[in-house]
Amino acid sequence: MFRVDRTENRIARLAQRRFGELALRERDHLQEWLVHQPDALGEELLIIQKEFDGFDETRERLDLLALDKAGNLVVIENKLDDSGRDVTWQALKYTAYVSGLNKQQIVEIYQQYLDRYCGGGSAIERICEFIEVEELQETVLNPGNGQRMMFIAANFRREVTATVLWLLSRGIRAQCFRVVPYSFGDELFIDLQQIIPTPEAADYMIGISSKEVEETNVKGVQTRRHQLRLQFWARALERLRADGITLFANVNPSRDHWLNAGSGVRGCPFTMIFARDEARVEVNLARVDRDENKWLFEQLEADRSAIEARFGGEMSWLRLDERKQSRISYSRPFDGYDVDNWPEMLSWLSEHIRKLEAAFRQPLAQYARSIPSVDETTEELARVSESVDPST
């Protein structure tokens, strides 16, 4: 690896190091880095436990246990400078142990993790948000033989790589990541790369199982919830057209509990929600940059009185500091799964999505044109930092 000096237009080689010589430890350092940045492993993962030892009649403990976006359990085994000979055997045992975990057990394991390491929170809500479902009943956790393994080390012994390749050939999802520390002066860098399978090979192997995934999705669409949503949104779009509302003119019915339409501002859609116990309209501030979302929210909230006057009601303003996005919404309770309530729900949604657009389109567009650049945001943060009395 090289460091680029743009001023001198030169590159300088980084010094490759060993974890041992840097006094970095597996549990205290590498494991914690991954806990707080799991997408360093190339995908979104939800860490649900670390040092997990909830196995019957054994005191063994796996390093990290995670969920992927499909609800599969992922066993993550960390080593430092050397993978050792037995890491695959360890991971296979742990994967076999967790293969029998049901949904309730997974929720309990994650709740224990949140209570011990994260100051609490609802495991069910966080899993639903991660999997992107409205209710936990809509998804399967730890399905079939979908358990996965990830191995992380600076160097992998031949017996390890040979075993992983054999597992891959048998349709078992296993990955090896090489993690190497580098230094430049007092700065420390980590290079974390997937080496088995290579990204190209991984795409091919995922493609092999696409038929199975497609069949699973088709079965899911046939559930009563998905059918209800498709029917509801079809009727909702008909109602909007009849009422002369063109906001959702190019949107098709969906099996999701939400339906988005563009607001004219990238990453900030107007949304209708069809839930089991309510209907809701909302503005989602969901741009790629978290700071932009929070800045937009603050500008809109400063204009709250005028916006709510145009809308005609008091809204729910959720800055959501723990998340990237923010949300402003208005809701009414309904028994959404009772079809007899749909005419009233459709009338309510039609009326209030019109009000939402009228209240937010102009100020949202105005503030979006004034979003500070990265440099301006940095300068403002610096000014705030300099004005803070360090003794307070």
Automatic annotation (TrEMBL):
Biological classification of the source: Bacteria, Pseudomonadati, Pseudomonadota, Alphaproteobacteria, Hyphomicrobiales
Pfam families, per database record: DUF4268
Protein species of origin: Rhizobium esperanzae
Entry protein name: DUF4268 domain-containing protein
Example GO molecular function: nucleic acid binding
Family matches, as InterPro entries: DUF4268, tRNA_endonuc-like_dom_sf
UniProt domain DUF4268: residue ranges: 228-363
